[in-house]
Amino acid sequence: MNNSPDKKIKIMPCLDMQNGRVVKGVQFVNIRDAGDPAECAAAYCAAGADEIALLDITATVEKRATMLEVVKDVASVVTIPFSVGGGINDIASAEAVLNAGANKISVSSAAFRKPEVIADMVKTFGSEKVIVAVDAAVNNTMKSGYEVYIDGGTTATGCDVSEWFKRIDGFGVGAILPTSKTADGAKCGYALPLIRAARNATSADVIASGGAGTLEHFKEAVEAGASILLAASVFHFKTIGIGELKKYLNDNCVNVII
Questions:
Q1: pLDDT for the residue 35
Q2: Rounded CA gap, 16 and 107, in Å?
Q3: Which of 16, 50, 56, 184 is catalytic?
Q4: Would the pLDDT of 47 be above 90?
Q5: Predicted confidence band at 185 (pLDDT cuts at 50, 70, 90)?
Q6: Which residues pair with 98 in a beta bridge?
Q7: Mapping DSSP to helix (H, G, I), strand (E, B) and coil, where does residue 72 land?
Q8: Cβ neighbour number for residue 168 with a 10 Å cutoff
Q9: 135 included as an active-site residue
Q10: Cα–Cα distance list, 201 to 62, 121, 138, 225 (Å)
Q11: How crowded is the C-beta side of 202, counted as CA atoms within 13 Å?
Q12: Which site from 32, 149, 225, 258 is most exposed, i.e. has the minimal number of CB atoms within 10 Å?
C-alpha cells in the first residue's frame, strides 16, 4: 500500500501543549516553552500549513479532559483543519472537542485500553474525523522491532506495533499517527521502519511524526509511505520554514499543496 502519485502530501505542524502553553521536548522529556497556542496556530496558518495538530500531552496522565478554551481560541484564528488529542477517551469527550471547533480528534491510550472506542467514534463522527495515535519504542524482541507504549509514552504494553496497526485499520479510521519515542525531538530523522510498518498495515493516511531535523528527512518519510508530515521542533524554533519545506519537496518531485 503506497501513496498514489497524484495524492498531495500535507504539512502538519504539531502544537504540544502543557498547562495551556505550546512546549517541545526530546524523547517526551526535557520540555521547553514554545509559545501561545492560538498565536502559533495563526502563524502556521499564515505560513501555509495544510493542517495543524494540537496535543494536550499531559491530559491523559493527569486524568483530565482537553482544555476546551484553548481549542476554541485556536478555532477562532485558523482557516485550515486542525486535530486535537489528549484526554479524549469516549464519545462525550470527543464530541466536546469537535463542538469547540476542532475538525478531527486523535485518540491513543484510551483506544488501546478499550478498542471499541475507535469503532464508536468512527460510527458516530465518520472515519475522516478519527485519528489513532500510536507511541512506540524500539524493542528488538518484537517481530516489527517496535513495542506500543501508552500514557504519554510512559507505559509499555507488550504489544507489537504492527499487530496494533492492523487492528486499528480494521475499524476504518481516517489516519494513523505513529510516533517513535526514541526519535521524538532528536532531529535525527523519522523512524522509517515504523512508518513502513504502518503503511503496510493500513489503507488510512499515515502521519509521520517524531524526529524531523532536515529537509531530507521529510522526503524520506514520504518515500517510506507517509502522506502527512508532522513536525514540531524544526518549525517552532524556525530551523525550517513551511514555505521552504514545500519548495524543497516540490523541487524533489513530491506532490505538495503550494
A1: 76
A2: 14
A3: 16
A4: yes
A5: low
A6: none
A7: helix
A8: 23
A9: yes
A10: 32, 20, 18, 11
A11: 33
A12: 258
Name the pairing type of β-strands 146-150 and 205-208. Answer: unpaired
CA distance 140 to 106: 28
Q: Which member of 50, 56, 73, 135 is catalytic?
A: 135
- Give the largest Cα separation in the chain, rounded: 47
By three-state DSSP, how is residue 178 classified?
strand
CA 137, distance to chain mean position in Å, is 16
Q: How many CA atoms lie within 13 A of 198 on its CB side?
A: 34
Chain-centroid distance, C-alpha 145: 21
Residues of the chain by 3-state class (helix, strand, coil), percent to 5: 35, 30, 40
Q: pLDDT per residue over 60-91, tens digit each?
A: 667 766 689 999 999 999 999 999 999 899 99
* Per-residue three-class SS string for the chain: CCCCCCCCEEEEEEEEEECCEEEEEECCEEEEEEECHHHHHHHHHHHCCCCEEEEECCCCCCCCCCCHHHHHHHHCCCCCCEEEECCCCCHHHHHHHHHCCCCEEEECHHHHHCCHHHHHHHHHHCHHHEEEEEEEEECCCCCCCEEEEECCCCEEEEEEHHHHHHHHHCCCCCEEEEEECCCCCCCCCCCHHHHHHHHHHCCCEEEEECCCCCHHHHHHHHHHCCCEEEECHHHHCCCCCHHHHHHHHHHCCCCECC
Instruction: Report the C-alpha gap between 101 and 215 in whole angstroms.
Output: 32
3-state secondary structure of 136: strand
Please tell me the distance from the alpha carbon of residue 226 to that of residue 192, in angstroms, as a whole number: 9
Integer angstrom CA distances of residue 190 from 115, 183, 200: 27, 7, 17
| Least confident piece of the model among 86-90, 116-120, 124-128, 180-184 | 180-184
CA–CA gap between residue 178 and residue 198 (Å, rounded): 7
